Every structure is written in structure tokens, then in C-alpha cells.
Amino acid sequence: MKIMNLVFHPDLSASRxxxxxxxxxxxxxxxxxxxxLYSEYPDFNIDVEKEQQLLTAHDRIVFQFPLYWYSMPPLxxxxxxxxxxxxxxxxxxxxKLKSKDMQVIVSVGGRGKFYxxxxxxxxxxxxxxxxxxxxNLTQMNYLIPEWMFEAxxxxxxxxxxxxxxxxxxxxxxxxxxxxxxxxxxxxSELNQVYQGLGQ
Length: 199
Prior knowledge:
The chain contains eight helices and six strands; from the N terminus they run βαβααβαβααββαα. By secondary structure, it is of the alpha/beta class. Strands 1, 2, 3, 4, 5 and 6 form a six-stranded parallel beta sheet that branches. It is globular and about 60 Å long. The mean pLDDT is 92.
């Protein structure tokens, strides 16, 4: 499986979370292509042909970024607008991304209790819905998204441990079918519970 990790952070060198995650994923030797998009396109002038060629050459596309005002960083939005064009990503002949995997990994500055979905709050999956809809339109497999709260002040060990968790499953082919993967995970956990009760 060829995996491309696209990191969208305005200043990756000053980042604790996304810089560490990128490094851990690289050291796992599971990432085929690793990129810092803000470094590549500081002027936001995106090479569409290059991006489309890279997309077609990989099986799993990882979007890694910090949540910005309940949304994505501006360069990622522009990248999607410019690169996912009609008759490439969607439309009558737009099947170039069909059956490829989309994995979203997000750092969230706020605390989990502010993303409960209750009353005035929203959940992270709700905020990431545009990615799911984009995957649906482009016929990609929308993999279960991953995130970490309190990114602004969490301890380095916790950041690294999240990165190691991501690295452990980043190339898991079972994730390409999220429903089947979730069912397998739930079944495995229930079996462990029942085995524990029988002891």
C-alpha cells in the first residue's frame, strides 16, 4: 500500500503536536510520501497537475492538520478547491480517486467536554463532515477519523503516544472498510469482556 501524508500546518517548525506526529509516522517506515504543504506552497500557488499525479500514485491519502475555528487551515481548503477538479475527482469521467482511502488526523486545541455535541456544542465527526462528503463525491473510502484534544498544552509523552497509535494502524488494510473494521473491533472487545466474566 502506498501512503501519502499531507501535513497542513502554517508553521510546522513551531508546532509541537503535528511536527511530532509527522516525525513518528515517518519513522514507522510506513509512509511512502511525506509532505509539508505550507512549506511547498508558501504563496498558495498550488501545482494542480503535480498534486493530481501524486494522488493517483497513492492508495491512501492522509490529511493531517490542526483544527482552525472549527474548520480546516486555509491552504487545505484552497488545495481541495484547486486540486479536486471536475472530471478528475468527480463528474462523468471523474473517477481518478475511486476506491482510494481518505484518512483524517486532527489536533484540537480545546477540551473534549466542549465537543460533546450537546446544546451549543458540536462533535469532531460533525465538524469533519465536509471531508466525509468529499470522500463520498469522489468515491473514496472515508476512514474513521482520528483526533486529540488539548493540543495547546498536552504533555509531549501524550502527543507521541497518539502518534504511535496512528503509526500502528496507518497501513491497516481493514480500515478501508470502516463498518466492517468497527464491527470487528466491537466483536473483539465484547469477546474479551465475556472471557473475563467467565474467569
